[in-house]
Design goal:
456 residues; alpha/beta; Rossmann fold; two-stranded antiparallel sheet; 18 helices
């Protein structure tokens, strides 16, 4: 049974059901039969026809079939998917490719792939092409379309093509599943996949709702543009036939002092519109090696485009900053990297939100590519009063506080106000009381000022 083939990291939950396991196991049996048949035909030089034989989708109903139908995978794409899946959970299916050429005591170069001491045979693009069409050049050229950047498997980030080393030809690229695809096939009951370092981004979640946000009228009006675009972009582009003159996607810059709600706003915008928001981890994305940052960023965009996510880049000026005067080769490569990022952002069909403390840190050419540039100022007196009122628990006793006076006397960001509320509430709990004291509010403000290096 397939369940016995799965390692502990990807063990199938009982909720998926044995029938799903049996179906995948059957697919692997068909795949191995095809591998053996292809090798037999190739080395015996017989004229026998080779056919792709896979399970009949209409006879079963399970998560694996749902995945195939959702992406409308044809038989060739299913074979490629199975080859990549074997690498993860059924390496023995690929053992026939480990045969050696006795004349040279080396693996057959026709099979492609490579041997791993711990993971058996690792298939490559050439492995898939050998299985599908041997070494028939005309057919190879035909089937190569399944591996280019515009193909469904690559564009939808179902498979990942990994070069063994820099400069490798496409045929030598190792064939594997994206972690997200593997997660969807083996853990479909779990909504989100934790991408770890492979995908340098994390999903943003919040228990707040859009109505909990506090803005001035100017910021609120600008944010409405993003809301309207997400709700009506398809009507504008398709029904109004504007897709020829307007590019898909929307780019916005949120800028303003720290703690003014830029990240929370992006999170709740996605929540309001039913879209996942992923914050890109710049520490995992940026590499000191030439070309690696662009490669890491491409992973982000490919995955985001296939899922219609909102991408959020915090402290984005560190990645999308101004180009410098060229005084060395490092400056030239840095400017090339910035130019690539500008182009890739512009081509992306998703909503992309960049956040920064200062607008002036961005290259002017980049600013022209934004549909919205929205300033998040420190809250005014009335907004601070609203934040103080909303922030405390309904159980808190605020009778000793003059929140209006506190709002007028201390210019604080929303994040700072919430930190002070947390501190004062904890002090009340420590006293086994629901009453919030003004002295704890003042002490909390002093603590926050001290953290920010302000005079206290």
């Amino acid at each position: 049974m397939l369940k016995e083939l799965l390692n502990q990291d990807y063990a199938v939950d009982e909720k998926i059901g044995l029938f799903n396991d049996e179906f995948i196991a059957q697919e692997f049996e068909y795949l191995q039969s095809m591998i053996l048949k292809r090798i037999e035909i190739y080395f015996n030089e017989c004229e026998e026809d080779f056919e792709i034989t896979l399970s009949n989708l209409s006879l079963s109903n399970n998560d694996f079939i749902d995945f195939i139908k959702a992406y409308e995978l044809d038989s060739v794409e299913r074979v490629i998917l199975l080859l990549a899946l074997c690498r993860e959970i059924s390496i023995q299916t690929l053992d026939p490719f480990l045969a050696k050429n006795k004349l040279y005591d080396l693996p057959f170069s026709e099979f492609g792939g490579m041997k791993s001491e711990s993971r058996g045979f690792i298939p490559s693009v050439q492995t898939a092409l050998f299985l599908l069409c041997e070494t028939d050049t005309a057919k190879v050229l035909k089937y190569l379309k399944y591996f280019d950047s515009s193909s469904k498997l690559v564009k939808e980030n179902i498979i990942v093509l990994e070069p063994k080393e820099s400069g490798d030809t496409l045929l030598n690229h190792k064939l594997s599943l994206s972690r997200n695809t593997l997660h969807r096939l083996l853990h479909p009951e779990k909504e989100h996949y934790n991408y770890h370092k492979e995908f340098p981004a994390k999903i943003l979640k919040s228990d707040y709702s859009w109505d909990d946000l506090v803005f001035n009228e100017f910021t609120a009006n600008h944010l409405k543009e993003l809301d309207v675009w997400l709700a009506h972009q398809e009507v504008l582009l398709n029904e109004w036939e504007m897709k020829k003159s307007l590019k898909r996607g929307y780019k916005a810059l949120f800028y303003g002092p720290p703690g003014t709600g830029k990240t929370l706003t992006a999170t709740l915008l996605g929540k309001k519109m039913g879209k996942d928001v992923y914050r890109v981890d710049l520490s995992s994305l940026v590499s000191k090696y030439i070309g690696e940052t662009e490669k890491n960023l491409e992973k982000v965009f490919l995955q985001a485009e296939s899922k219609d996510w909102i991408l959020f880049f915090d402290e984005a000026d560190s990645l999308f900053g101004k180009r410098t005067a060229v005084q060395s080769s490092n400056d030239r490569y840095a400017n090339q990297g910035t130019s690539y990022l500008l182009q890739r952002i512009e081509e992306c069909h998703n909503m992309i939100i960049l956040a920064s403390n200062l607008k002036d840190n961005f290259d002017e050419a980049f600013l022209r590519r934004f549909q919205s540039i929205i300033y998040f100022p420190l809250p005014e007196v009335n907004e601070r009063f609203d934040l103080w009122n909303r922030g405390f628990s309904k159980k808190a006793d605020l009778s000793l506080l003059d929140l209006k006076e506190i709002s007028e006397g201390y210019e604080l960001s929303g994040a700072t106000i919430m930190n002070v509320i947390r501190y004062a509430s904890l002090m009340a709990i420590e006293r086994e009381s629901f009453q919030i004291k003004e002295e704890d509010i003042i002490q909390g403000i002093r603590r926050e000022n001290y953290k920010e290096g302000k005079l206290v």
